[in-house]
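User: As part of a screening pipeline, I want to sanity-check one entry by hand. Below is the sequence and the SMILES for calcium ion. Please return the complex as structure tokens so I can compare it with the automated output.
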Amino acid sequence: MADSTISNEDISATLPEGAVVSIDTGSNGENQLTVGKKVDGMEVAASSGSTDISGKQVNNSTISAAAEAGETSQITIQTTGFVGSTIKNEGKGSIVVTHSTGSFKKSTIDAGANKKRDDVVKFGNEAKIIKGEVIMGKGNDTVRFKKDAVFKKKTTIDLGKGGSDKVFIKSTKGVEGGKLTITSFSKKDELTIGKTTFDYKDIQGGVDLPGNIKVDLA
Ligand SMILES: [Ca+2]
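Assistant: Here is the complex for your manual check:
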């Protein structure tokens, strides 16, 4: 049996054989994609608006956002795991990605390297980040890790060229389980760990960053 496709007016999902995935509209008008059992090789395309992906583990899958210029595509992941998978921005608008629960393992968030857009990536209190990769591109971007987000192995954040980017790490406790490297940190960027904010000069001056956090200056 060939792959099947399910869709509504905002999103479509191409599913591998045997997948148990449904699309509904949530109470706030968001697109709700529910994964009933572990899925491997799903392709989701979302326009602007909000898309929530929840349920069981999502493996080797791609979520493509394509908001119009000036609009935002919101993607929220609340599955038991997001493994070997990618969320990428292919539109002219910006993306807001929230990984709220489950592991984010060997997965990538690619906000689009070459277009100037203000993008936001958030990891929630129930997120476990294992070998993650976050690519923010141009624009004024924000990356936020809540207090109880935990890390394993090495995760990298590329802040991209230009813009005033901000990284917030609420607590170092979670980061200590792994390593976090931030690259392309420019003179307008800021890193806030707990209540302390570090800028380019602080890092150039060799300040000790807590919690296995390393910054490579642009
Ligand atoms: Ca960006």
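Points to compare against the pipeline: The two ends are 50 Å apart (CA to CA). The helical segments are 172-175, 200-204.
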